[in-house]
Amino acid sequence: MPIALVWFRNDLRLADNPALRAALDGGYTPLPLYIHAPEEEFPWAPGAASLAWRHQSLAALDADLRQRGTHLRLFHGPSLAILQAVVAASGAEAVFWNRRYEPAIEQRDTGIKQALRAQGLRVESFNGSLMFEPWAVQTKQGGPFKVFTPFWRAASAQWRNEPLWEAPAALAEADTGPAGVPLAALGLLPTPRWDMPFWSDWTPGEAGAHAALEVFIDGALHGYADSRDRPDQVGTSRLSPHLHFGEIAPWRLAAAIQSARSAASAAGVDAWLRELGWREFAHHLLHHFPQSAQHNFNPAFDRFAWANLREETLERWRTGRTGVPIVDAGLRELLATGWMHNRVRMIVGSYLTKHMRAHWLEGARWFWDTLVDADLANNTLGWQWVAGTGADAAPYFRVFNPVTQATRFDPDARYITRWVPELAKLPTALRFAPWTDPAVAARLAPDYPAHPLVDLASGRDAALGAYRTLRASR
Q1: pLDDT given for residue 452 in this prediction
Q2: Which pLDDT score is estimated for 356?
Q3: pLDDT at residue 393 in the model
Q4: Which helix (H) or strand (E) holds 52?
Q5: How far apart are CA 294 and CA 361, in angstroms?
Q6: How far apart are CA 56 and CA 247, in angstroms?
Q7: What is the DSSP string of 394-413?
Q8: Residue 397: predicted pLDDT
Q9: What is the structure's pLDDT at 435?
Q10: Residue 272 labelled as part of a binding site
Q11: Helix (H) or strand (E) holding 331
Q12: Is residue 373 a known part of a binding site?
């Protein structure tokens, strides 16, 4: 049988994998390979936490392939040169992959496709990661959407349940071509291994993704509409890293969630599907507005008076030493687990971009390096939304009050106490804002900052003042 390279990227699964299926349907023996080329993703080369996840996920994919009779070949270097070398050494006649939508990758892949086709190869790419490709949903005028609600209305009208495709029980080995390098040679794991605690919370890989889906359907889905904003509860799906790395297809998730609909879970099902819609919207925006990953979507904010913060000030925010408990809890959860609850992401982001008036890129870059689910489209949309600079953004004058947010969504301070344990001896009401009783805080929580890094009232006033100045300059 002729050989086809199946180039795995952010589609680290066997079920519902269009590139793998195309190779098999075309009568080819698949030669699975992965190429680590972070320099080709500049200026958003993968961050440290996501690299650690990728190491685990690649190991899981290789194990799944070996159970079926083949294995994953790993390479490190320029993608086009490696593909050409493997084609030459193996005699492959085709190359298949699933598309990625980051601007640098889209441009790279276009060049690779042209070069390989010029060599006479069959080269095809497929949608393996989205319900709707970014160009498939358009306004009535034929342009991109900039507001979520009409985007999701138009996308939902196109919704078609994709047929599911199960992983093949066996795969023939392409017994030719270069062996590649060991997984450790890719250098994905950090030194020292600060990521080790992550894996008590996460199981990367296709099996881990399916297990996480089952846990969600059996548990948090039923109360998702109400509990997804509660960081003190297990109320979210925690599927985001599995989705980002393509360990499970979004259409399989959607089908499973929809099949779990009942009178008790209907609100949760609808709320979760809408969150999946936000992911689609993020990729839609990044494709049509690729500059938004680096620049304000709303160019008016190029004139905004962002604060020029000292590195030590930013470091206190990054490490959860701002003196604002809910903010510090979120940032410490991030460092300990590689993940942060979405409601807390908004609170943490608002404090950085509004109270501290740091440019949203400061937060985007930190999340990019520390989140296991770091996704360029979602990260860009989230930070520009909370900063008020993006498409369909929160109005700039919407400044989250972290104390109000904490008392509403963590009413017993359980989340705060878990991640900021030095506040555990304080009365519960004081854990939200310990600076309001400095004598008690100094006695019972002496190791916690006595005052917020930026006072909430004055920080809010300064941010709104800068916003008024911006509006007046138009």
Answers
A1: 98
A2: 98
A3: 73
A4: helix 48-67
A5: 7
A6: 12
A7: PPTT----HHHHHHHHSTT-
A8: 73
A9: 98
A10: yes
A11: helix 325-337
A12: yes
> Nearest Cα to 125, choosing from 115, 137, 113, 108?
113
Mean pLDDT per 10-residue segment, the chain (474 residues): 97 98 98 98 97 98 98 98 98 98 97 98 98 96 96 95 95 96 98 96 97 97 96 97 98 97 93 97 98 96 95 98 98 98 98 98 98 98 95 79 98 98 98 98 98 96 92 80
Side-chain-side CA neighbours of residue 202 (13 Å):
30
Q: Where are the alpha helices (DSSP H) in 166-247?
A: 206-218, 224-227, 240-244
Taken in order of first residue, the domains within the chain and their CATH numbers are 3-127 (3.40.50.620), 130-163+206-288 (1.25.40.80), 299-472 (1.10.579.10)
Catalytic residues: 275, 278, 306, 342, 360, 383
Identify whether the C-beta of residue 186 lies closer than 8 Å to the C-beta of residue 46: no
- CA–centroid distance for 353 within its chain: 20
Contacts of 444 (CB under 8 A, 6+ apart): 425, 426
- Compute the C-alpha angle 188/76/201, nearest 5°: 20
Q: 119: which strand partners? A: none
Query: Annotation-wise, does 224 bind a ligand?
Result: yes
404 is in an annotated binding site: no
Number of H helices, E strands in the chain: 19, 5
**pLDDT of the residue at 219:** 95
Dist CA 93 CA 220 (whole Å):
47
CA angle 112, 117, 119 (to 5 degrees): 105
Picking from 415, 457, 451, the residue whose alpha carbon sits closest to that of residue 436 is 451
Which of helix, strand or coil describes residue 57? helix
Instruction: Give the pTM.
Output: 0.97
Residue showing tokens 């009401």: 429
Paired strand residues for 76: 36
> Rg for the chain (alpha carbons), in Å?
24
Whole-number pLDDT of residue 472: 85
Angle at 354 between CA 353 and CA 360, to 5 degrees: 15
Residue 423 burial (CB count, 10 A): 23
